Amino acid sequence: MPILKLPFNQFSKSKSPSNWRAQINQNQLISQISSIILQRHNWVTLLPNFNLASKLTPSLFHQMLLKTQKNPQISVSFFNWVKTNLGFQPDLAAHSQIIRISINSGLFQPAKDILDSLIETQRVPVLVDSVIRACRRGKDSESPVLGFVLECYSNKGLLTQALEVFRRTTIHGHVPSVRACNGLLDSLLREHELKLALCVCGALFRRGVLPDYVRIAQILCKNGKLERVVRLLDMGIVCNALIYKLVIDCYSERGNFSGAFHYLDEMCNRKFDPGFGTYNSILDGACKYENEEVIQMVLGSMVEKGLLSKLPLLEYDSIVQKTCNLGETHAAQMFFKRARDEKIELDDSTYGCMLRALAKEGRVKEAIGVYYVILENGVTVVKDSCYHAFINVLCEEDPSEEVSKLVGEIIGKGFSPCGSKLSKFVASLCKNHRWKEADDLVNVVIEKGLLPDSFCCCALMEHYCRSRQIDSAIALHEKIKKVKGSLDVATYNVLLNGIFTENRTEDAVSVFDCMRSHNLLSSASFTIMISGLCSQKELRKAMKFHDEMLKMGLKPDIATYKRLISGFK
Q1: How far apart are the first and last CA of the chain?
Q2: CB of 215 within 8 A of CB of 185?
Q3: pLDDT score of 569 more than 60
Q4: CA distance 466 to 286
Q5: Other C-beta atoms within 10 Å of 128: how many?
Q6: How confident is the prediction for the chain on average, in pLDDT?
Q7: Taking CA 564 as the corner, what is the angle to CA 558 and CA 568, rounded to the nearest 5 degrees?
């Protein structure tokens, strides 16, 4: 039998003596630092003696955190001390470790502060995977920590990222806490992402997690699945005053008042006391469908239960405002109209509440009506939110002369809409060739020192140049400069061409200087300037632009360049 020959160094040591010595020294340092931190109250004054700034590595720091985790508060303090006093920047793994340590010991605020900084800099997959590794290294359950991460994203309204956290968490076989799942569902409901909320519910059911019944009912109702919620009530699976209220709301919104009254009676039979909001929900539906019989019936019940006084003359302000705050604008409008018909003087704040509530519900025609009443009566609306809600909903409307005028008027009062909504509205005006209205609105915006969206200004500028309104184009450019705005390169080139058609060399040079200051020059820009100056026999100026073009490396293609230099002949 042949003798098996092994390399002579097969069993030699993998590390040299110097490496072993370094490893021993590192272990001693970890042990020393950890012991001092855990055992000495004055550890902050003792640690500088170890010159940690030159010795600390990510690996050493991780091990120190693991050694000190038995006292989580100390671990967090050490983590912060190292960052503040040594200038050491812990890596993602160390951040994940301290988050794990903090959450598992109930130190939620420090964990949130650290996680907030990571959310701004880390991609979701990288962060989630790092947290999972930290939990496994610390031999802790991943679910509480991942649930906390999910909550943070949800509370910030970062729905796309929150859904990614949820997806990766379930991929790894973990299920977030019910609280974290409820937080995600709440965020989806707030943003009206109803189908996504329904999908998340389905995923939770499949994993044996049952979110709060009220949230499930809200999601089902808003997805048009009221019958499923009714079935839950009828089968006795759930018995909750909020769910009864939700069902009554849905029936009232649909105009099914027999269903609404049936579950109102059921609610009373089960000793749930329906309040103002429940009755007002039915009243709102009755006002919406102009069902006078139901209106009188509900008003009578509300008076009988003491929810309304028999003579509401002195209560109209509080009733209208309360109803507006519930988002039940049809009922609010009825009370508002009755008060005005009865010549009751309402508070200025009531008018503001009506304007805001109607705007938020998207009832633009009615909101405009209230706005005109405000103007006629000289009402002073103090809350900015009322006008902001109104102008935002106006900007979502199809352009019309009336709406354009109102938007400009309210901006003139000092109330600015959401930038993206205003830009969309002006763009819509341009698309529909309502140039005069677009021009007037952009002028109002600029006069208020606001910076219009560049897309809107570009569309308007191109229209002026195409229609040879060069004076208007230059005037618009000057206004944009005053608010430190700019156009895009293509629009600047259109403007340059337009100016040269009017032989206005100085204006062209001024515009080009502005382009240069914004670093918005292109080969086409130089070509337009050089050709224009040559046509005006300004050859010396043209040559300067030619030299600058070459210096900047913006020489055009050969054919264009040949045509360009032919202008110098």
Answers
A1: 97
A2: yes
A3: yes
A4: 55
A5: 27
A6: 89
A7: 135
